[in-house]
Amino acid sequence: MEHAVKQETAFVGIETSKLQLKAVLLSGGEMLCKVLENDVAGYRWLRSWLQRNDVPVMGLRVCMRLDMPYSEAPARMLAEMGMLVCDAQPAQLEDYLRGHGLPGDAAHSAVVLANYCQHRRPARWTPPSPAYVELRLWLRRLHAMQGVRQQESARLDAHLRAGQQALHALLGRQIACLDAQIRQHESAILAHVRRHPGLPRPPELAGNDQRIARYGVGASLGGGH
To answer: What is the spatial distance between Cα 43 and Cα 45, in angstroms, rounded to a whole number?
Structure first.
């Protein structure tokens, strides 16, 4: 016996920012909007708001731009709540906008995402593995340390030009400590990749021209999910 296909009657589009979520609900021919905090309390308020509007949360299709900053945490939490989180891929979304005569900057709108969700029914998003999340955190930490080292190097040259020998020597020792920590992070990243072969390439590796490139991490992460 074939199972009946679920009839979807409600769709949600969510626009993310650092502090807020803008949610648009399409249900029963109506459009409802809600602005919430981008934190755990906000995600729970979103669930309560949907339930108060008689929208079942389990299996509810929710469309987001997961290529945007501050989107992964709410996506993961909503998926854990049972919602069917979908990623609006840029290429498919641009095609949808052209087909409806909408400007390109409308791609971030929660209204557009809700309508796109209803018309195109994008595929379910699969949360990344813990190993992949950990790798991205390692890389972000490494990049932060490399940024500090670059700033300190600029100050080192300034002290030298000003004849500030004591400050120059002190800062030189601090930079040496930073270099040691950076090498430790590079080694830890390499070890992590070796323990988890086949990880997808994180966006934090894009344009990376630092010393970590010599370890071939980019090549190791060349595959997809």
So the answer is: 5
Q: What are the tens digits of pLDDT across the range 42-55? A: 999 999 999 999 99
Between helix 165-195 and helix 130-161 the angle, nearest 10°, is: 160
Q: How far is CA 217 from CA 1, 59, 114, 122, 154, in A?
A: 49, 37, 38, 31, 28
Which tokens hold the place of 53? 């509007």
Q: What is the pTM of this model?
A: 0.69
Q: Six-digit token pair at 104?
A: 């390109």
DSSP letter at 2 equals: P
Which of the residues in the chain have pLDDT under 50? 1-5, 209, 211, 214-225
